[in-house]
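Hey team,

Filing this mostly as a record. A colleague (T.K.) asked me to run one chain through the structure pipeline before their review meeting, and I want the input and output archived in the tracker in case anyone asks later how it was produced. No errors, nothing strange. Just documentation.

Input sequence:
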Amino acid sequence: MIEITGKHFNKIHRYRRVWPKYSTQKLNIAAANCKAFDKEIVGSAKDLWLEMRSLKIRGTFENWCSFYKSKPYIQNIPQQTDKLFAMIQKMEIGGVTRDMCEDYIWEVLENKTHMGMAREEMAIEAVANYYKLPYRFSTAEEETQGIEGWIGDDIPVQVKPEDSVFKAHVHNHPDRNKVLLVTYESKNFKCYIHNPDFYQQKAKQ
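Output structure:
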């Protein structure tokens, strides 16, 4: 495993709301059940992020929020909030109000999306710089295949948070024979290449 520390990680800052204990876990399950984050309705985070970056807009939290709110998808937030709250009631989950449902939707669309997209971008950039190769970020379709970006001509990279990639409940575990697995630490501005031998094998081909 190779550890990389990049100064550019400092461009990213965590913006997190404070939630009552266990409330986001309940909201996450309810949101999945009612498809609160259907890409056709609230937009594809990956596509929107790539669009924003293609316009040379820096990937700050403030820029991301402003860019997302400039899109017509925000008109659908009230109906998605209603769907989420209806599912909360159907599941008989107590202690969660409609206002909390709306806050959670914005938490995901703004805070969590920015954290995920920005960290992926910075991790891919750090790895490409380490190997002194060009890079590009994946499309939304490639992301569904577990690829967050590419370095060189044909080396796919999968990026995951360090604190979740090896937990049993996390789906879509990486196939280290098919992707270069990179994880990042949110607090320490570090990332790790877990299978450098994959890069070495691809480089020899």
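Quick notes for T.K.: The two ends are 22 Å apart (CA to CA). The first strand starts at residue 2 and ends at 5.
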